[in-house]
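Entry 14. Ran structure prediction on the chain below.
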Amino acid sequence: MKRRIVLLLSVVVGVDATCFDTFGNAMDSAFVPCDPSAKVTHCCSSADYCLSNGLCLNAGANNVMSQQGCTDQTWGSPPCRKYCTNHGNTAFPSS
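Output, structure tokens:
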């Protein structure tokens, strides 16, 4: 009886995409791109759910939706539309 040895290799491709807040500041590694295969995408906390509308859903906070980050530092690309900017604890519509 022949024995077969199967070697499985798993390749993890990492994306070195940085997420930026609406002011263009780099965010920490807790924020990840929602579509790692996209050139530009919105970002959410790794604890939140990415939504297709560019917002993030925090199911642990009474289903609060928020805008968290973008891989485009200028936020000029369509996947990262500025819904609002954060001024302290109050959100205002972006002009």
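The chain is about 0% helix and 25% strand. Will compare against last week's run tomorrow.
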